[in-house]
Amino acid sequence: MDNKIFVISFQRTGTTSTGEFFKKSGYKVADYWVSRKLNWTPQWFDKNYELIFNSPEFINNEVFEDDPWWCGNFYKYLFYRFPSSKFILIERDANKWFDSMVSHSNGKSLGNTYIHSYLYQRVNEYNSLNMPNDILIHDNALPLNENYRTHYTNIYKNKNLEIKHFFKRNDLPHSSRLISLRLEDSNKWDKLTSYFNINSSPTEDVWVGANPNK
C-alpha cells in the first residue's frame, strides 16, 4: 500500500501521457476513467479519503494520474498517509497551459463546475448561477477565456511553487520522494526511467494528453 506513485501535476500538463508511459513500462495505472467510474474526485472533495484507499482499484494499482491526486492540498495528506510513496510534478509554460485549458472544453471550465470553481477560486461565480446543489451533475458551466488568464496562471505558478517548497521542507534529508520535470523537456521520460530504476520503458516520446507545443 505504501509504494504508490502519485502524479500531482495540474491537468493539461501531460498527466495522461505520464500514465501511458507507466503502462508501457509494465506498471498498473489507475487513470482518469478509473477515478471517474468510482467518483474518486467527489469523494476527495468530501474528504472521504479512506473510501478511496480501501477500494480494490486503489489497492491493486501502483500509479495514479489525473484527479483527485493533483487537487488542492491532497498531496500533503498523501505524503504522510503513504510514507514510502513517490510523487511526480510536471510543469509547462504557464501561458501555454492556460491556452490548453481554454481549448479543452471550448472556452468553458473543465469538468465538474463546482469542484472546478473550488480549485480555481471561483466559488462566488458558481453560486451566482443558482444551480442545484448536486455537484455531480453540472459540467463546463463557467466561462474560461482571456479575461481569466492572469487569475489562472497565478494559481498555477503559485501552486507548483508551493508543492516544491513543501517537499524541500518535509522530505528530508534528500528530497528523494518528488521528481520535478518540465513538459517541454525531450528527456523527461529518460529521467523518469532513471528515477524509478525502470528496466524497460518506452523509447519514443509518449503523447496522449497535453503536448507542450499545443
Write a brief structural summary.
The chain has 214 residues and is α/β, with parallel strands linked by helices.
Write the layout of secondary structure elements.
Blueprint: E1 5-7, H1 15-24, E2 29-30, H2 32-38, H3 40-45, H4 49-53, H5 56-60, E3 63-64, H6 74-81, E4 86-91, H7 94-104, H8 113-119, H9 123-128, H10 149-170, E5 178-182, H11 188-195
Parallel strand pairs: 1-3, 1-4, 2-3, 4-5
Helix pairs in contact: 7-10
Q: What does it look like?
A:
By secondary structure, the chain is an alpha/beta fold. Helix content is 44%, strand content 8%. The protein has a five-stranded parallel sheet, sandwiched between helices. The longest helix has 22 residues, at 149-170.
Question: Which series of helices and strands comes N to C?
Answer: EHEHHHHEHEHHHHEH
Low-pLDDT stretches: none
The biggest beta sheet reads: 5 strands, parallel
How many H/I helices?
A: 11
What is the topology, as strand order, of the major beta sheet? 2-3-1-4-5
Radius of gyration: 17 Å
Structural class: alpha/beta
What is the approximate shape?
globular
- What's the average pLDDT? 90
Fraction of residues in β-strands: 5-15%
> What distance lies between the first and last C-alpha atoms, to the nearest angstrom?
36 Å
State the total count of DSSP E strands. Answer: 5
Helix content: 40-55%
